[in-house]
């Protein structure tokens, strides 16, 4: 099934204008472990899992 979007003329004009994206360097500073955010997310997820399982066991 196809859907054809309708674009207002002012929005179409805005889309025709060129735009520029300016990238910036987003790296970590020297000495910062780039895997740390993933470890933190894993730790938080594990803590949440333990809490949920403890609540289920109580009920």
Give an overview of the whole structure.
The protein is mostly helical and 59 residues long. The chain has helices at residues 9-16, 36-58. The protein has a domain at 34-59. It has two helices and no strands. It is flat.
Compact overview of the structure:
By secondary structure, the protein is mainly α. It is 53% helix and 0% strand. The chain has two helices and no strands.
Helices and strands, with pairings:
Blueprint: H1 9-16, H2 36-58
Keywords:
flat; single chain; mainly alpha; 0% strand; 59 residues
What is the CA-atom radius of gyration, in angstroms? 24 Å
List the secondary-structure elements in sequence, H or E.
Answer: HH
> What oligomeric assembly is this protein in?
single chain
Please count the beta strands (DSSP E, at least 2 residues each): 0
Low-pLDDT runs: none
Structural class label: mainly alpha
Number of helices: 2
Task: Return the average pLDDT rounded to an integer.
Answer: 88
Shape: flat
Question: What share of the residues lie within helices?
Answer: 40-55%
Q: Which percent range describes the beta-strand content? A: under 5%
Note the gap between the termini.
48 Å
For the biggest sheet, the summary is: none
């Amino acid at each position: 099934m196809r859907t054809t979007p309708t674009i207002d003329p002012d929005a179409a004009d805005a889309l025709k204008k060129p735009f520029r994206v300016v990238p910036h360097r987003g790296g970590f500073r020297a000495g910062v472990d780039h895997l740390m955010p993933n470890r933190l997310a894993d730790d938080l997820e594990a803590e949440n899992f333990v809490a949920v399982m403890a609540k289920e066991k109580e009920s």
